[in-house]
Design brief:
6-phospho-beta-glucosidase, GH_1_N_CS, TIM Barrel, alpha/beta, about 475 residues, two-stranded antiparallel ribbon, eight-stranded parallel beta barrel, about 35% helix, globular
């Protein structure tokens, strides 16, 4: 078995989790810059502050792993691994510090010119997420984020600025990261909802405006360069019924539709699915969607579908009352006794990736890409600066085998960018100790360390995987 000759092997990061330099060269504060690290003894979730107090608290994104000043070193390491693509994001507030300016910040644009040039020097194709949990804080505080339709215009201006500036350097784009988290309790801030309590109608209005912004970006990008490939990105939480009881199966279908399929249906098919229309009707959710909006969604469908896959979970009809719940990426479920779990309680399920790829390709029949997949774990740095992370190698090996099988099933899978190609701060908790990378960064949960980079054992393993196009595992 082998992968297509043009398969895009690489890795993924996000600007707010790796760049640092949060107030350098004209950059403004994003919502991530207002989030300090979570407590291991509490929920683990990061604490969001309306006012930044750096004298009292540590804000991980302010320095992160300082990719801003280390990008040449880091990209050289990605090139040593043989990357064909590097998935990264642009920090919105590095381009428009408040988000609503008429003119972009040239220093921010120049930084990404330099990053893309460094990638292209090594033959690495940039894959750029336009908005990856980096909404300008000002847009949330002043406008209530995407609840205000003016923010659609600001996003379109931002996206168009990127498309125009980098049209000869970047071919692959993603409009929003994990767009389906926009109505979950821990995910409202990504759409700028943090000033007060919001009704469910307001939450779906904000998400609807995000859909419109994405569609406008797709249309604008294709007008600027018809060769652009512009995709969506969702967090896919694969779900199984806990038992074969019909009530568990039905509950699984309902939750799968709402969390996993809804946003993909809008962005790929260009229309709201019937089950969400009924959900809105049943729950008295009545937000504005015009005929013009419907036409825009139909015209602004994406070229390909990308997703994150870390785990699967089980669903039961009585899920709210159960004690055997599992952890996960902003979403829980019921524990699956047939699966092992990570150090953070995420259930490891390689076969679930094959199942998911087939499920998605059957539904959408557009090219697919796995743009996040990985194992957060405690890594031990040896005295000689090596890291023996065989557990990570085994995780990736098993998932790549299942991707091979999905290709043999007939799925059109075009790329794989594991999270994260280098250690970075956790989006959910702000920790550094939750390490995903092939490259170790000397930084701890309190922001101490030299920031030195050390390749792990998995670094050299993944290099062989890419060299052999997936045949040497």
């Amino acid at each position: 078995m082998s992968f297509p000759t043009n398969f895009l092997w690489g890795g993924a990061t996000a600007a707010n989790q790796c760049e640092g330099a949060w107030d350098v060269d004209g950059k403004g504060p994003s919502i991530s810059d207002h989030s300090r690290a979570g407590s291991r003894t509490a929920s683990g979730r990061r604490v969001f502050d309306l006012e930044i107090d750096t004298d009292q608290y540590y804000y991980p994104s302010h320095t992160a792993i300082d990719f801003y000043h280390h990008y040449k070193e880091d990209i050289a390491l990605f090139a040593e691994m043989g990357y064909k693509t590097y998935r990264m994001s642009v920090n919105w507030t590095r381009i428009f510090p408040n988000g609503d300016e008429d003119t972009p910040n040239e220093a921010g644009l120049k930084f990404y010119d330099d990053v893309f040039d460094e990638c292209l020097k090594y033959g690495i194709e940039p894959l750029v997420t336009i908005s990856h949990f980096e909404l300008p804080f000002h847009l949330g505080k002043t406008y209530d984020g995407f609840l205000d339709k003016r923010v659609i215009d600001f996003y379109e201006r931002y996206a168009t600025t990127l498309f125009t500036r980098y049209q000869h350097k970047v071919k692959y784009w993603l409009t929003f990261n994990e767009i389906n988290f926009g109505t979950l309790p821990h995910g409202l801030r990504i759409n700028g909802l943090f000033n007060r309590e919001y009704t469910e109608t307001e939450q779906y209005q904000a998400l609807h405006n995000v859909f419109l912004a994405s569609a406008r970006a797709v249309i604008a990008g294709h007008n600027i360069n018809p060769d652009f490939k512009i995709g969506c990105m969702l967090a896919y939480i694969t779900m199984y019924p806990k038992t074969c009881k019909p009530a568990d199966v039905l509950k699984t279908q309902q939750m799968n539709d709402k969390l996993n399929f809804f946003c993909g249906d809008v962005q790929v098919k260009g229309k709201y699915p019937y089950y969400m229309k009924q959900y809105f009707k049943d729950h008295g959710i009545d937000f504005e969607i015009t005929e013009e909006d419907k036409a825009l969604l139909k015209a602004g469908t994406v070229d390909y579908y990308t997703f994150s896959y870390y785990m699967s979970t089980c669903i039961a009809a009585d899920i709210d009352n159960r004690e055997d719940k599992s952890g996960g990426n902003l979403f829980g479920g019921v524990a699956n006794e047939y699966l092992e779990t990570s150090d953070w309680g995420w259930q490891i399920d390689p076969i679930g990736l094959r199942f998911t790829l087939n499920q998605l390709y059957s539904r959408y029949e557009v090219p697919l890409m796995v743009v996040e997949n990985g194992l957060g774990a405690f890594d031990e740095l040896n005295d000689d600066h090596t890291i023996d992370d065989d557990y990570r190698i085994d995780y990736f090996r098993q998932h790549i085998i299942e991707m091979q099988k999905a290709l043999d099933d007939g799925v059109e899978l075009i790329g794989y960018t594991p999270w994260g190609c280098i250690d970075l701060i956790s989006a959910g908790t702000g920790e550094m100790s939750k390490r995903y990378g092939f490259i170790y960064v000397d930084r701890d949960d309190e922001g101490n360390g030299t920031l030195a980079r050390y390749p792990k054992k998995s670094f050299y393993w993944y290099k062989k995987v890419i060299e052999s196009n997936g045949t040497e595992l």
